[in-house]
Task: structure prediction
Amino acid sequence: MTWKTASAGFAVLVVVAFVAVFPVVSSWDPNDVEFDLALQLPSVAHPLGTDQFGRDLATRVAVGGRTTLLIAGAALASILALGFLWGTTAALAGGVADSLLMRIVDGLLALPRLLIAIIVLVALKLNASTVPAIVFALAVAGWMLTARLVRGHMLSLTTREFVKASRAVGAGWSQIVRRHLLPNSTGILLVALLLELPTVVLGEAFLSVLGLGPPPPIATWGNIAYDGWTSHRMWELTVATLAITVFAVSANVLADGVADQLDPRRRRS
Amino acid sequence: MSLAAYIARRALWTIPLVLGVMLVTFLLMRGAGGDPFRPPEGYIGVPESYARILRDHYHLEDPWFVEFAYWVKNVFTLRFGPSLVQRNLEVADVVRHGLPVTLQLVLLAAAWAVPAGVAMGLWAGTNRGRPADLAATSIASVLLVVPVFFVVFALREYLVVDWRLLPSGWDTWRARALPVLALGLAPAGYVARIVRTAVVETMQEDYVRTAFAKGLRRPRVVWVHVLRNSLAPLLSAAIPMIALLITGAFFVENAFSVPGVSNFFIEAVRTRDYPVIMNLTAALAVVVLIANLAADVLLAVADPRIREGMKR
Result:
């Protein structure tokens, strides 16, 4: 493991620790409106200042991080599940079904994710976006690369001796998937997870900044950025952007490192 | 495969893709259930007389495949139809006035971002390991990872609002400079990183060593041998780059009050204006898929290996 990967992993841990611990030790409620305290700069009482409603920004960033990471986690779980099922089905089915399934993936990959996510949100016909709706939209917009990765991996796995041996002794495909293919895919799924982590965090931010995020007063990193955007406060937008970017970039670097670790051939560059 | 055959094949593949996207959008909007004239609580409905006009135009009384067929026909004859929410708004007007603006914005941004990115990547890749490489690579990474909404907001707040250096809007070339600059930053960084990786690999090829060995000057080797052989990875970069541009356009148009289609699209999403959403989605999808097509064709012209492999 290089120092780069290690420090990226450390940064991810720091963000997660801050998000987990800070709301507990903070003496402020993230949603308490107090206009007397509005628009303050950082101080001892408010380490990151306050927003236009007098809410403590540090607490909101931490609580918002929880919501954002919750959305990201749920979306990632759906992306991995859907991508795994789709990719495995395509690889095992082969032939026409395989190329049809992968053409659908190609077609969806050609469209911007944000556009897909917005269309899905609209199709859900909600008065306001909810957290599950955002999760669903991000998952529908984001599973295709994972499906492609999994399919490629499965195509190489199914030519291996242990899979052939299982088939020869009469194991059914569902058993082979459960006993052999899934356990042998943890590596590729981990890579997919870390690869998609920044994109779902950013996806939440993009939707929220366009005003399509969870309704106020729910704090998310994207919603804090949106508050900064609408109230013309550079400071607030900067804080939210930093949280998003530091987390996304560290996750990305970590993904590269883990991929190198899993595949020694990649390590040289 | 000849170039013409490749282009024809690639173009034909775009047609089912466009129809597929339209069908999915259509089914999503329709399959969501409910009556378009009884919107969810909190949204204002449509008077009966106007509802009749809408029903007639969109053939809402017919079976779904008839409705879909009419919609496809209307989109391709540019008779997009009326809005559900804004009574005097024709979607055709939005498309006619907004789409050229969005296209111009995106194309102008790409027009500076791609050459700038290629130059930066080439510079970094040929100076691998030197300070120039570190500088160019760092700049490219920063351009790529800083979210577009932050860049756009910072540029607007300081240059347009506070210091009044540039106007907002889209009327003059002065006003256009900032949106075009802002939109191209992330794609430039993206292209730079792709090209750098490719250049680093090409520099290690035997034919490059041979070119140096037979006494060719460095500029000739770089421009003729290295650059042209390093552009192939842009094929896989075209789709993410178009996505970056379209995604960025949403924020750029919003921040600088550019009268493009994205602003109308977001407004339609907020007011649940289904006809506007559907038609603008179709228009944007057509633009994106044609852009993909154009990128593939350009690269097939530049690199014969692509049309031979027909890689997808």
